Amino acid sequence: MHWNSASEFFAMGGYAFYVWGSLGVTALALLLEPILVARRRHNVVTRLQRELRAEELEATAARKSA
């Protein structure tokens, strides 16, 4: 397409709401995904560390009582 002015470009031939809304939602998803993945990873690592400590405490307690 050919636009004669910046306002025509931003109007996108009458589809501006759809075009810019889609661009905005996509940009938001691309920004949030790494943040959410990092948070999920942190939660999993924390949970695994907790489970490991609990297993170590159980093993220590079992050795002491044996």
From TrEMBL:
Keyword terms of this UniProt record: Cell inner membrane, Cell membrane, Cytochrome c-type biogenesis, Membrane, Transmembrane, Transmembrane helix, Transport
Job description of the protein: Required for the export of heme to the periplasm for the biogenesis of c-type cytochromes.
Family: Belongs to the CcmD/CycX/HelD family.
Name recorded for this polypeptide: Heme exporter protein D
Highest taxon listed in the record's lineage: Bacteria
Localisation: Cell inner membrane
Its membrane topology: Single-pass membrane protein
A matching Pfam family: CcmD
InterPro entries: Haem_export_protD_CcmD, Heme_exporter_D
GO CC annotation terms, alphabetical: plasma membrane
BP-aspect Gene Ontology terms: cytochrome c biosynthetic process; cytochrome complex assembly; heme transport
Membrane-crossing segments per the record: 12-32
